[in-house]
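Figure S4 source data
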Amino acid sequence: MYHPTSRVLAVLELLQSHKRMTGAELAERLEVNIRTLRRYITTLQDIGIPILAERGRYGAYTLGVGFHLPPMMFTNDEALALEVGLLAVTQLSLVDRGAAVESARAKLENVMPLDLQSRARAVSESIRLDLNANQTTAPSELMLVLTQAVQHTRQIHLRYQSSDQRETERDVDPYGIACRWGQWYVVGWCHLREDLRSFRLDRVLDAYTTDAVFQRPEHFDALAHIEKSIATLPRQHTYEVLLKSDVVRAQKTACATLGLLETHPDGVMLRGSADDIEWVARQLASLPFGFVIHAPDELRIALKKHAAELIALVETSETVNS
């Protein structure tokens, strides 16, 4: 949840943008009740913001004449980029669906010409992003602490809860932050384990910056490290598949989720491991290019089984339609 101050400021930005809004409209946009909204209005009035309340059945709130934020100008391309960015922020669970996004959007719309306001709002109301269906929320305060620590190469102290509910405390040199399949991670050197480790942000119970500094490796790629770590986890089945493709095309498909990709004279070599070998077979069957299974035999058997199931479905459909 956001601090009430964020929602108070969101009221101001919405009124600045829309000029006149009813209490019901404001409450709906901020996801609060009418009583809470009135409290926010009173807070703004107490600090000198000229908010006028129209009484009666059709009453509404308006900003007093002369209260304006500093002007800014955006091109059409910039406005599109900002609106899509706000949608992505929400989908990536960086912030709650409410005050922060609405406040930012209201600020942007307030400084746009009317025609550009309409275009920007059309973007937010028309586009739907499906970045991943299973995101976990990255708390804003935690994200700010970690990003500043990465930028200034300052060590952090973590209180962390593992998947088996065990709590540990450790000092970490944060090298970078990445999001993979809806999970946010911070990657860095763990002084407790004396090794490079990644930590899920939804399992961080507490974090603060210390006075210690460190030197971050040049060109460190947090996402690449996480993908490599996940792909090389020990599992029941390890596999090796030669993809009849180039690396760029392979990376654009689901191959990055299957394992590590290495260039090969005849294409791209995919190496990985999984507990569910039939899942691997289904993923391979969906690829838009050919491949050759080098190992194991269980993967060849699983792929044949999947192919037989698909053929059976086709034959059933032909029988029904005949």
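Figure S5 source data
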Amino acid sequence: MAITLIIPCHNEEGNIAPLHRAICDAVGGGDGWRLLFVDDGSTDGTLARIKELRTRDPRVDYLSFLTNYGHQKAILAGLRHCRTELALTMDADLQHPPAVIPELVAERERSGARVVIGQRRGRQAGLVKDLSSRFFYRLFSALSGVAIIPDASDFALYDRKAIDLLAAIDEREPFLRGLVPSLGLAISVVPYDPAPRLHEQPSYSLGRSARMGVRALLRFSEAPVRIGVVLGITGVVLSCGQGLHYLYLRIFTDRLIPGQADLMVFLSLIASLILLLLALVLRSLGEISRTLGGQPVYVIAESSLGPDPTGG
């Protein structure tokens, strides 16, 4: 069955040729597969290396973004342009070992799953990023009700049904590790050992990962808004109770109302709760504004294929 390997790239100049060699060694030299590189606004010679490779291997195609839109959008663009029955997404830095590709395909044939996800056995990203990633996945699953596979990666195989469903989703900030489980498709897992990054430096920083995580939580879960509402209501109830208490002291006792410290602390608490609620509301409005703003998810500046079927 024909397969397209979708590879998002951002400043991966030194990795293109070694990756191509490793893929050829893993899947063979037949015509049943294609490589689709998605250049995510690289500022080095990544696109030039891809074009050179295409002159030697007709199975190579490419999309080139106008600017850097992000890893997830690059994968989404690749899925929208995929015309084969299977698609496999993987990074260009060889941390997703091409030698595992036959295992993913074999697992699909064995299990009949529509999606086969590579699951990291070892961690290579550093202690802080690893711990924060695990915390986010647990938090995301708890708040959204969408169970993300622990240590799941974007090294994944999709059949035609899964490709069509993902390509049709109109997401301004796609988060595939949350979208895929939410579709309800049969998913299987293949554990793998991530390899060290071959060349260049990773462009997906901890800060950028955190921003994507916040957007994903707001997209998939109403829990932050519910928390803000509950805190706001609790603050109002406590405020009323405190007011009744001071009124009782003034009317039915001879004791004076204590100093203003307690009142100031309480007012500060209320103000904080109001600010928290406003922040959540404004954040949600920002997400809605981006969704309805009419801006394209990405802009393709150059391509060896036809136009984007979605007009993105």
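The mean pLDDT is 80. Residues 3-221+296-303 form a domain with the Spore Coat Polysaccharide Biosynthesis Protein SpsA; Chain A fold (CATH 3.90.550.10).
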